Amino acid sequence: MKRFRTAGLLWIVMIITLIVVGLVFKDTGLHQLPFFTKVISQEVVCFLIVYILNKVWSRQTVHFISPVRLRKQLGVVWPLILILLFFDISVLTIGPAFKGVVVNIITVLLIGLFEEYLSRGVLFTLFLTDLNGRSHGLLRATVFSSLLFSLSHLINLSHQSFGVTLLQLGFAFAFGFLLCGVYYKTGSLIWPILIHAMNDFIGFNTHPTTSLQLSSTVVWVQLTEIVVIFVLALYVFSRHNKITI
């Protein structure tokens, strides 16, 4: 259970790190920076911290290059890519000018890099290694890492209502569940990063500086998305790619 404890401790350390970094950017002269500049800077700092912690403490191998042929990787991710690409193109019709789009792309890629490196690259791998050979080890590792990924979004209570945050927790759990499958079945963290970024790109081009207001429409949309994500997760986990991560 050593790796299990390491995963929990690393998660706590990174939550504290997120809070501290957020406070530094809020309560110092850095708060005058443009919104996206602050977000990009925070994501870079947090990624560097988790990268260093993994190298000196958790020591998990994070795979960016997959041993599986690209054709088989695409067999796992193509429905997700097509769905997200449709919505990404749709929001561009009402989104910012080209310069704003470029900034958004850089931002969501950095967010995806940090969150996927931590949640799938390190935490999921720690759980999976610890539960290897045990009954339903893959399922349990996926649930545990997705739960931590979901609980990380409690930080959003600092600027939005409990109801909206609760919906985000459910969405994040389902999305994390799906991305664990993507990483496990493709053997490359590039795909979870890309899918994560494509999903965040939708929000950053529609309401980048404001949170959602809770309404019956928002609730039903989020619940529908959660159901769709779990269906896609079933598809991903059903693929027969043989990979060791």
Automatic annotation (TrEMBL):
The keyword Membrane applies. Keywords: Membrane, Transmembrane, Transmembrane helix. The chain crosses the membrane at residues 7-25, 31-53, 74-95, 101-118, 138-155, 161-182, 189-207, 219-237. Residues 101-202 form the CAAX prenyl protease 2/Lysostaphin resistance protein A-like domain. It holds the Pfam family Rce1-like. PANTHER family: CAAX AMINO TERMINAL PROTEASE FAMILY PROTEIN, SLR1288 PROTEIN. Belongs to the UPF0177 family. This is Type II CAAX prenyl endopeptidase Rce1 family protein. It comes from Lactiplantibacillus nangangensis.
